[in-house]
Automatic annotation (TrEMBL), chain A:
Gene3D superfamilies: 3.40.50.920, 3.40.50.970. It comes from Streptomyces ardesiacus. GO terms for molecular function: oxidoreductase activity. The keyword Oxidoreductase applies. Keywords: Oxidoreductase, Thiamine pyrophosphate. This is Alpha-ketoacid dehydrogenase subunit beta. PANTHER family: PYRUVATE DEHYDROGENASE E1 COMPONENT BETA SUBUNIT, PYRUVATE DEHYDROGENASE E1 COMPONENT SUBUNIT BETA. It is an enzyme of class 1 (oxidoreductase). Residues 6-181 form the Transketolase-like pyrimidine-binding domain. Pfam families: Transket_pyr, Transketolase_C. Its cofactor is thiamine diphosphate. The keyword Oxidoreductase applies.
Automatic annotation (TrEMBL), chain B:
Keywords: Oxidoreductase, Pyruvate, Thiamine pyrophosphate. Residues 92-371 form the Dehydrogenase E1 component domain. The gene is pdhA. This is Pyruvate dehydrogenase (Acetyl-transferring) E1 component subunit alpha. Residues 1-57 are annotated as: Disordered. Its cofactor is thiamine diphosphate. It comes from Streptomyces ardesiacus. The keyword Secreted does not apply. InterPro entries: Alpha-ketoacid_DH_E1_comp, DH_E1, PdhA/BkdA, THDP-binding. Gene3D superfamilies: 3.40.50.970.
Amino acid sequence: MAAEKMALAKAINESLRRALESDPKVLIMGEDVGKLGGVFRVTDGLQKDFGEDRVIDTPLAESGIVGTAIGLALRGYRPVVEIQFDGFVFPAYDQIVTQLAKMHARSLGKVKMPVVIRIPYGGGIGAVEHHSESPEALFAHVAGLKVVSPSNAADAYWMMQQAIQSDDPVIYFEPKRRYWDKAEVDKEAIPGPLHTARVVREGTDLTLAAYGPMVKLCQEVADAAAEEGRSLEVVDLRSISPVDFDTVQASVEKTRRLVVVHEAPVFLGSGAEIAARITERCFYHLEAPVLRVGGYHAPYPPARLEEEYLPDLDRVLDAVDRSLAY
Amino acid sequence: MTESTAARKPRRSAGSKAAGTTGTKAAGTTGTKAGTGKRTTRSTRTAARKGTEPELVQLLTPEGERVEDAAHAEYASYVADITPEELRGLYRDMVLTRRFDAEATALQRQGELGLWASLLGQEAAQIGSGRATREDDYVFPTYREHGVAWCRGVDPTNLLGMFRGVNNGGWDPNSNNFHLYTIVIGSQALHATGYAMGVAKDGADSGVIAYFGDGASSQGDVSEAFNFAAVYNAPVVFFCQNNQWAISESNEKQTRVPLYQRAQGFGFPGVRVDGNDVLASLAVTRWALDRARRGEGPALIEAFTYRMGAHTTSDDPSRYRHDDERAAWEAKDPILRLRRFLESAHHTDEGFFAELEAESETLGKRVREVVRAMPDPDRFAIFENVYADGHALVDEERAQFAAYQASFADAEGV
């Protein structure tokens, strides 16, 4: 079958549909995921086709959703849980950190936790408080969890397939402002491993590393820089835990400069870890310190200010200039 | 929707012979007063609320007498055909569990365990409910369900690894359908509910039972579990051992209503049972599991009992409760009352008790030996089972750790 052009949200929908079709143990759970199809319509039509027993509208209680998903996983099911928005995951944080992440180790490997937690995340949609956050570092910090975020429809499709097949809990961060971005999705193409980064644009002067919503921005930055005669390489990290440091390292050994971009606050964010690791690995290759562009150490601002808070073309170009000035 | 019958109608009239139930004498008098419709001050109302402490299901008095009460007939029917041999079995379970528990406390004192959470006093609640489970039922314990573990056939020495600090549990939950001990208070109530939702999806007729305590009843997860279980009509029994103390905090700090009454608000029945009465605990749990299996949904059992010991070996109850309280509960000891009944019914002879004593000592000796021989885990166990499918960072750090360890060998010229 030829590749088909579809929006990122639709790609996830199709991926969930395929999982429901191919494995009777796969369940969809969450608030409003049934009749409504989720507030972003990512689960649109699934309850109609697979029934209320497999596409489950849950009570409005995030800890309850994740806690019962753990119980269902113990019974042999593979729940795919939706948290409606990034800022609403915290009632479930205890279940995720103290139970979901640790159950496999606690049982010395006798219990597996194939649970996927989908979280639409990030800003840029003009939303009210708690609807625009990027809490991925809070999950990447927890051993036992895997954390991924696709940047485009094709990855969204395949990374969801792989996340559901994983016997480990996967936190799947969906870049909500890219839900409507379309790309070719080949449902027959066999993808590489889930936790590998990908060079999405080759360059020689500097490496931009990003994931999720910021990959598109970095590609735009690379276009703009090209007009000024700068050749930027863009790495789509795809996986936030584990990070594919080898791919980043190979890129930096070539370009000798690295800027990491994410919407999440810079302080103790993924960029901090990448900067530290790449400095250790590439110390003698680096021409400049690894720079980070991201959110500030302040609550996510009201929508009228979010453009000031979020990394944009100019802020990333500014970091590129600073790096190249060393 | 099934309402909590226990909450709606008193199981025994206030003036009737209150067969050893807690505080029922006071209940009789204050209850009557409150019933006259007199205007009461806040303090008397509180007293009345306390005084009308609800009746509990009891089938065996502290003096060891069978309670023949029409109000409890439905529950009693679940143990109507219990044989002397089964009764002796319950007695044996309780004695061996208490012996194991005492051994573990001693091992902590000797430095062999880092910590122990004793179940002393709660044997009847645990053995009664544990023996009500079927092999295909699934049990979600806290960290104090040593008696339930015993009923499920879990080797008691398996329970000690986490208290010795050689693992964090480690037994296979699926070999005995006995989940790992859960330390975070109340989390497992949701796991049990989810598991029960899975049982229902599978069309199986197994039951699931979640254990927790009076302290856990304050946790949001427990309320969420009640609600999910009710909404999905999940076959789960919530078994709350109200042992009166959440470390140093008494019931009054956890709840303004008797815990079993919480069920009513969620839409399923709640029952308070004498948790020091093994027969009543067995009967009520059988009743609850039975209706869960029939697709009638969840139930809450509040087993009214007492934590005779400290919260754990690190606790000092003398700072927050009086010895006379403990003494009052000693008179209601779960093992003693069954022994009295067995003896008066001539179900036992001296040989039985002597044999059991010998068996207890053998168990204690085995536990001692196994614990003392329990090796420290290999240092690389830190990196084992963090993930089922592996993780690059764990691999990298394991290799670094190995290199670091190996550097000592090089230094020593080994």
